[in-house]
Amino acid sequence: MARVDVLMPQMGESIAEGTLSKWLKKVGDEVKRDEPLFEISTDKVDAEIPAPTAGVLAEIKVQEGQTVPVQTLVAVLETDKAAAAAAPSPAPAAPPAPRAPLPAPAPKGDGAETAEERLRKKSTPLVRKIAAEHQVDITTIPGSGFAGRVTKQDILGFIERAPAGAAPTAARSAPTGPVEHGAVEPWPGDRVEPWSKIRKITADHMIMSRRASAHVASFFEVDFTRVAQLRAKATEKATFLAYIVKACAVNLRKHPVVNAAVSGDSTIYRADVNIGIAVALDWGLIVPVIKHADELSLSGLARAIADLGERARTKKLLPDDIQRGTFTITNPGGFGPFAGIPIINQPQVAILGVGAIEKRPKVVSLPDGSDTIAIRTMGMLTMSYDHRIVDGADADRFLADVKKMLQEFPEGAV
């Protein structure tokens, strides 16, 4: 008879805790090695955690909805089924949380922080320690991590840039304090559903981005007829999105300011072209990243898009899959909208929105100079950009080059 402890895993070096969002097995169930056992949610990714060995789930130590530090004992597996069946039943789950929004909890009297407080401060224990030593208010630092999280590099750079003799807290003020979502009283018959962690992170990140960046948008109508013709001839058909990613990857090299980030009063021109693709999930929004997208062929990009999308939907993404993006593309066009204005994915400075691609009447010029109305495959591209460093001319030149490539897509680029 052997008992195997199942611990809360550490999904990335900056992850200090995780929320057990769902048990996929119950006490007494047999599990196979590597079979999904439970789901966790961190501030970087949702994931299914596999069983470390085959056996029977004998004890559940952490209930659904609980947030615990990494390496906390979550469950016990028993390799002997008879012994496991005799194990006592787990304690009843804690009562559900109140079904209406409540104010943020006050800090505990012993000085310990709750998980919610740590999330609002967007930092790891190491970062908070550095902040305390240097008397830095973390809420004044624009974070470069996922969802605006303040990383070690962020706070060290912040301290280094502080003017001599000045308190670091006053060195660089930024509109990135805790986001407060006002409470609204539910009416009789209303259904109140508390936000999941990924929904809360997304909400905070969007508000923070609107505060941090000077949002401006440009719209370009693109004739995708050439791409449609290439797709019709191809034996391995790539999606329209793959062609758009290819065009963006090629042209981000030519327009580095669109592939940049703002750091204080400096611009960081990224050496890599890492394109994030927003994926809409039933439980929220996530942006996995295609690393070195400019080095991939069209078919390679198509495979990467399909792989990341599938792993996002099946909760198989790793923390590294959603980090180090330099530019983001969101594709709501699959749902039918003509166009939209997306919010920048911090700390990037631009995001491209793809509208519905469909056949429409279009005025075209003939070789003899006359005009006619033809049926063309058309779509709208919208780019939101940070006007602090990306001027309208910069954005429009980039979009014009993307449009030109899509309308004249070269055979060699496939």
Tags for this model:
alpha+beta; 3 domains; globular; Chloramphenicol Acetyltransferase; 7-stranded mixed beta sheet; OB fold (Dihydrolipoamide Acetyltransferase, E2P); 414 residues; 4-stranded antiparallel beta sheet
Description:
There is one protein chain. With 414 residues, this protein is of the alpha+beta class. The protein has 3 domains: 83 residues, OB fold (Dihydrolipoamide Acetyltransferase, E2P) (Beta Barrel); 100 residues, no CATH class; 198 residues, Chloramphenicol acetyltransferase-like domain (Chloramphenicol Acetyltransferase, 2-Layer Sandwich), CATH 3.30.559. Helices cover 25% and strands 24% of the residues. It has 9 helices and 19 strands. Strands 9, 12, 15, 16, 17, 18 and 19 form a 7-stranded mixed sheet that branches. Strands 1-8-6-3 form a 4-stranded antiparallel sheet. The radius of gyration is 25 Å and the shape is globular. The N and C termini lie far apart (58 Å).
